[in-house]
Amino acid sequence: MRETRILRALRKPAWLCVALWLAGGAGQALAEAAPAGSMASVEGAAPGRIELGIKEYEITAKKRPVDKSVTKLGEKPEDTSTTDHAELEELQGPFHSGPEVTKACLKCHNKAGKQFIRNKHWTWSWHNPKTGQVLGKRYLVNNFCTNAAGNEGMCGQCHAGFGLTDSRTYDFHNQENIDCLVCHESTGTYYKLPPTRGNKACAIMFEGKPPIDFTKVAQSVTLPGRNNCGACHFFGGGGDNVKHGDLSSALFKPTRDIDVHMGEDGENFSCIICHVGDGHQWAGSRYAPTVKDTTRVKPGMPRQTATCESCHGLQPHPFTLMGVKLNDHTDRVACPTCHVPAFARGGVATKIFWDWRTAGRLKDGKGFQEEGYIQGNGEPRHTYKSIKGSFKYGENVIPEYRWFNGVERWITVQDKFDPTKPVEINHLEGGPDDPDSRIYPFKRMVTWQPYDKGNNTLVYMHLWGDDEDAFWGNFNFARAIRHGMEDFGLPYSGEYGFVKTYSYWPIVHMVAPKEKALACQECHAREGRLKNLSGFYMPGRDRNVWLDRLGILIVLATLAGVLIHGLLRIVLAGGRKA
Amino acid sequence: MALYKVKVFSRFERFWHWTQALLIFTLLFSGMGIHGFYQVLSFEKLVWLHVAAALSLITLWIFAIFWHLTTGNWRHYLPTTQGMGQVVRYYAYGIFKGEEHPYRKRFWHKHNPLQALAYLGLKLGLFPVLWITGLLYLSYGLWSQGPVTASTLQWVAVIHTFFAFLMAAFVIIHVYLITTGHGFLQHLMPMITGYDEVELTDAERAYLEEDEPGRIIE
User: Fold this and answer.
1) Fewest beta carbons within 10 Å, which of A108, A193, A451, B55?
2) Which CB contacts under 8 angstroms, 24+ apart, belong to B139-144?
3) A518 and A551 together in one domain
4) Which domain holds residue A506?
5) What is chain A's mean pLDDT, rounded?
6) CB contact under 8 A, A566 and B98
7) Same domain for A510 and A549?
8) Residues A451, A568: one domain?
9) A545 touches chain B (CB under 8 A)
10) Would the CB atoms of A521 and B42 count as touching at under 8 Å?
11) How far is residue A148's CA from residue A56's CA, in Å, rounded to a whole number?
12) Closest residue by Cα to residue A71 from A266, A230, A233, A275
């Protein structure tokens, strides 16, 4: 009892320090992280409603808004299937669990399992042949919740399988653990919970969920709609639109204004219209995006590429004076650069700044959270959480533009870096003189996160678990990092610090209708969107100062010359008359 | 030799002159906007204007070149030193004393030596450089992917812009010079009506009276 009181007394000044620091010094860091004008600014320490627990994934565990999106071009969704699964004898059940349903699926679709266990949604691992790096959620550290490795008990919620609690021991060959339903069910009543319960501080995630009617859900299977993909992908990084910026719950039922392809009043595309594929492998990658698709398209030619060009071709603009000039841009400028004028549109904000340094503050010995930001659709967002730290949000954010050739080099947990400079977690390669590069839009995530001060590497944190080391519950970085590193046999100096990191997320969704595409002068101007890109000449932005001075001098000297000449004529002729 | 009022600027020549003048002003105006000297119109509209005007001017020039060659009018622009000294002396000195212009227009030499040389420079120097760099600028997408890369565009732009400044200087001098001599209207009217006072030899007069009645008034 006395000990607790002392601890509390000790905590108070520490808390004050954090608050003062946030009000002062951090303001600079926060301001730096947010380009003026595009971000709403909310201080992490702003007082707000206090509540406990994690509830970011609430929407995915309740009934999701089910979309009737187009899954095959030119066909109504209900006409695409040759089978009504509800009438199949094999699916009459009754089923009581996911794996039971999977077994029934694999009885008829007897190659689907073999196909799917090669899929990234299952392996969480991908070898990049261009860089030789092994990437994937199983290994990488990002600058949101940092690492899935060691936290599968939580993060496995979005693994397309059942019961991924530890990727070191999980049987990645057991096809019966594939979760067919999460991608194929169409009732919106199926949901997944974290595979383990974690600390009691996170118990809210498991409370009050309606039971799943597995038989009904199994009979509803069809091609995936936006709600299937979106249940995970719209909530990456720890909540609605937290990670990507261009993938949010606003895309469950968007207008064409938010996304011209997915808008229900427009094309009403499902994700798989662009992310095409066969045999449970489909196109589109964040690790190796196709930045320049120069394959010539013939009408009706089947493509397995999720590029704009695969449908629109290389000369998408009409054959007019300006259309030809715009087509001229496609070799150097990626389509989304002009056609996604801003991301986090449609009322759902994205996290743009995350500060782990403030994580772990307590009230009455308990973790807490504050809602200090109201996003466009009226919903509050957390600006502070004891388990994660403080955040800033952005809506209608203007992207960062970079030359990019599709090659990303990641700082993995083994790679050393210089902590005195911001660390680019995924460094983008490319440049103006590289013919494979185009100017591409990105969301840049800025985070202060823990690192190994002795070894200058990123760290795995043990966040999730019902033990005395899990950060989410114990709020102790030292123990959480030591545990996280030890779990994977990684060297740890024993001393942690915080390092500023950047990560880049390609912005390609939320394509605006063409009338809202960027006007030329958004970039072709002295202070335009591309003012920070160097190494190439751009009309309207660049000029040679000396040439301008010389030119103006020539014109002014000419003007002065003729004026003096004319004046002399008038004066001298006038004198002669007199 | 005597002075006659003769039609020296044919209908095409006048059309060419004034259309070219309009297009050059359009190009100067839109070019300055694209270069970032002012922001009145959107970049898109400026580029449209510039490209449309440039393509029109190039089309006009193709006709003009054909016209020069087939009608023999190219001869008006042959450079000569004969009388050059007098003309230079006139603009530098005589003009202030109220002297008469030393040059008399002749049927096949309607420009004075300085004028002919200036126009020749314009047609063989200034215009072609602006054309070539402008076309390179416009067709950037076609050549920028090879060994010649993005940074080359800077030199195309620098040369194009520099010669555009020279073009502006030319326009200023050109407009100023028609205020000299017998005045603004005296210089302006021939380019509108086509008729100007020209010295004709007897043979030329006889030829015009016989074969091109209407070209010679008195």
Assistant:
1) A108
2) B140/A328, B141/A327, B141/A328, B141/A329, B141/A331, B144/A331, B144/A332
3) no
4) 2-54+343-522
5) 87
6) no
7) no
8) no
9) no
10) yes
11) 17
12) A275
Nearest-CA distance from B21 to chain A in Å?
Answer: 18
Nearest CA in chain A to B92: A565
Q: Over the stretch A386-443, which tens digit does the pLDDT of each residue have? A: 999 999 999 999 999 999 999 999 999 999 999 999 999 999 999 988 889 999 999 9
Residues A484 and A563 in one domain: no
pLDDT in the model for residue A413: 96
In a domain, A563, yes or no: yes
Determine the average pLDDT of the residues in B1-15: 86
- Kindly report the three-state secondary structure assignment for every residue of A215-231: HHHHHCCCCCCHHHHHH
How far does the CA of residue A346 sit from the closest CA of chain B (Å)?
28
Q: Which residue has the higher pLDDT, A187 or B103?
A: A187
- Interval A44-58 mean pLDDT: 53
How many structural domains is chain A composed of?
2
Structure confidence by residue, pLDDT tens digits, B32-55: 999 988 888 999 999 999 999 999
Tokens of A16: 């004050």
Interface test with A, best of B32, B41, B43 (most A CBs within 10 A): B43
d(CA B218, CA B206): 12
CB A538 within 8 A of CB B150: no
Residue B192 CA to chain centroid, in angstroms? 15
Split at pLDDT 50, 70, 90, the class of A300 is: low
**What ipTM was estimated for this complex?**
0.90
Write down the domain spans for chain B. Answer: 2-211
Work out the number of other CB atoms within 10 angstroms of the CB of residue A90. Answer: 12
Shortest distance between the Cα of B137 and any Cα of chain A, in A, equals 10
Q: pLDDT category, A42, cuts 50, 70, 90?
A: very low
Contacts of A327 in chain B (CB under 8 A): 141
CA distances from B103 to B88, B106, B216 (A): 11, 9, 20
Nearest CA to A249 out of A67, A70, A400 is that of: A67
Lowest mean pLDDT among A41-55, A267-281, A362-376, A450-464: A41-55
Question: Where does the pLDDT of residue A557 fall: very low under 50, low under 70, confident under 90, or very high at 90 and above?
Answer: very high
Task: Using the predicted structure, report yes or no on whether residue A45 has a pLDDT greater than 80.
Answer: no
Question: CB–CB of B35 and A540 under 8 A?
Answer: yes
Closest CA of chain B from A336, distance in Å? 19
Q: Which residues of B touch A432 (CB under 8 A)?
A: 149-151
CB contact under 8 A, A520 and B44: yes
Q: Do B47 and A322 touch (CB under 8 A)?
A: yes
Look up tokens 């040059």; give the residue.
Answer: B103
- Which pLDDT band, with edges at 50, 70 and 90, does A365 fall under? confident
Smallest Cβ–Cβ distance between B44 and the set A433, A519, A543 belongs to A519
Q: Is residue A314 part of a domain?
A: no
Chain B residues whose C-beta sits inside 8 Å of any chain A C-beta? 34-36, 39, 42-44, 47-48, 51-52, 91, 95-98, 137, 140-141, 144-145, 149-151, 153-154, 157-158, 161-162, 164-166, 168-169, 172-173, 176, 179-180
Class at the top of the CATH hierarchy for domain B2-211: mainly alpha
Q: Do residues A254 and A346 make contact, with C-beta atoms less than 8 angstroms apart?
A: yes
Measure Cα distances from A411 to A133, A134, A135, A136 in Å: 10, 11, 10, 12
Residues making up chain A, counted from first to last: 578
